[in-house]
Amino acid sequence: MSPVYDSNNIFAKILRGEAPCTRVYEDEVALAFMDIMPRAEGHLLVIPKAPARNILDLAPAALARFMPSVQKVAIAAKAAMAADGLSIMQFNESAGGQVVFHLHFHILPRWTGVELRPPGGPIEKSGKLAANAAKIAAALKES
Question: Does residue 104 carry a catalytic annotation?
Fold first, then answer.
């Protein structure tokens, strides 16, 4: 039996407006917001609005509707941050590295020769998160 979705996880609370986030993008199926402990400049998360513990739990049709939002945000993040590339990460269950049990994709802009910061790093200042969010949001409007 697979674990049950916990509707009190932090991302579910963000979706309900019970916890803050620095929003970048929202559509009918997805929400994108800045990671508060970024491993790279412009690191953001894209989550489905549907309650899903991880990629193993989301219905294929819902996943198919969600993935274009992930791609759209990734394209904008790369452009906005003038990145050389991207790392897109998604983890499933504790053994797979998942920490928050709501499906989410990490979008990490990358530059040649620049290493990722370690996970669980310091919380970024809200002004820096807002500045990066504004850059990415502007790139989304241009697309």
Answer: yes
Residue of 43, 102, 104, 106 marked catalytic: 104
Sorted by where each begins, the domain ranges of the chain are 10-142
Q: Which amino acid is at 129?
A: L
How many angstroms separate the CA atoms of 51 and 134, rounded? 27
- In angstroms, what CA-CA distances link 79 with 58, 76, 103, 135? 29, 5, 25, 9
Please give the Cα distance from 31 to 25 (Å, whole number). Answer: 6
Q: Which residue has the tokens 């370690």?
A: 118
The domain made up of 10-142 has a fold known as HIT family, subunit A (3.30.428)
Tokens of 140: 């989304």
Q: Model confidence over 76-94: pLDDT tens digits?
A: 999 999 999 999 999 999 9
